[in-house]
Design goal:
With about 300 residues, the chain is mostly beta strands. It is built from two helices and 18 strands. Strand 12 and strand 13 form a beta hairpin.
């Protein structure tokens, strides 16, 4: 009987010495992501920094894309019973983008399993696209190993500042400054797509991608002033209302291509309402010219 008690005490002591964090996902995880595609593309050298609070997980993903280091903020859930980590959809650069500066974002989710032992902890799984783009956005398989040396760097109250991608140049130039949206717009020419004659000065706009969703992103400028910042187009219209300048004989509405999407050039359907009449037109822009509507008001 005493022998059984001693064995039980040894088991309890052994269990108490197993770190509680062994079955959690807190910490720094390192690995390489491999694209599941028949063609050869660069692998994703990655670091995932996670903080777990109960079942909730947040943090960020750092990965190299060609010449740049990209940072994407993550949120998700971890089940300690099944050791499953699910990452909610987040924007990741489409693998065929020419570079990180002129990139196309696609939403990807994550599904991982934690395997923890005395010697190492490993997250195995993948990032995958949504149902609509599963045939154009291949999975990225990852095997991430936890770094015990850097686990303490994950702060207890480290909340992401904002949920968006940040591109960090791999070789920054000290004297280089980021070009403004207006400067980029002014560096391109304009091509007149159509001239419209409207009745009212207040115009309601709707812009959307009326073809296959290929991650086109655009900005809108009215009389050389940005009225819509970089926005990705899909089948759901982006709506806004503008006021024409009464001192100008002609108002110019331009569509600036932020990228070329997966199927160049950048195209969009634009609908205008002047209160009485509906105008619909197709706009096509590229990286050298912006499609422009010339709008006149009836006298």
């Amino acid at each position: 009987m005493m022998k059984l008690i001693k064995i039980a005490l040894v088991c309890v002591l052994f269990a108490s010495q197993t770190p509680a964090s062994a079955q959690q996902v807190n910490g720094h995880w390192y690995g390489i992501g491999m694209l599941q595609t028949t063609k050869q593309y660069n692998a994703y050298l990655s670091e995932m920094v996670l903080q777990q609070k109960g079942k909730s997980v947040n943090g960020y993903l750092l990965y190299y894309f060609k010449d740049s280091l990209v940072k994407a903020y993550l949120n998700g859930l971890y089940d300690e019973q099944t050791h499953k980590l699910n990452i909610y959809p987040f924007p990741m650069i489409y693998y065929m983008s020419p570079n990180a500066k002129n990139s196309i974002d696609c939403n990807m989710s994550g599904s991982f399993t934690l395997l923890a032992s005395k010697t190492e902890s490993v997250l195995t799984g993948k990032f995958f696209g949504d149902e609509e783009h599963k045939y154009t956005v291949p999975d990225i398989n990852l095997r991430l190993t936890k770094s015990n040396d850097t686990a303490y760097l994950v702060m207890k109250n480290d909340e992401p500042e904002e949920r968006k991608d940040t591109v960090i140049a791999a070789k920054p130039k000290p004297v280089e400054t980021e070009i403004s949206a207006l400067d980029a717009f002014n560096q391109r020419g304009k091509v007149v797509a159509k001239e419209l004659l409207v009745l009212n000065s207040k115009i309601r706009l709707e812009i959307y991608d009326n073809g296959e969703i290929d991650y086109d992103s655009v900005s809108l400028f009215l009389n050389n002033k940005q009225i819509l910042p970089k926005s990705m187009l899909n089948h759901k219209a982006i709506r806004l209302t503008i006021e024409l300048d009464p001192d100008l004989e002609v108002n110019e509405l331009s569509m600036f291509a932020e990228n070329l999407g997966m199927i160049p050039p950048n195209t969009a359907a634009l609908i205008l309402y002047d209160g009485n009449t509906r105008y619909e037109t197709m706009l096509t822009s590229d990286l050298s010219k912006s499609a422009t509507l010339r709008i006149r008001r009836k006298k």
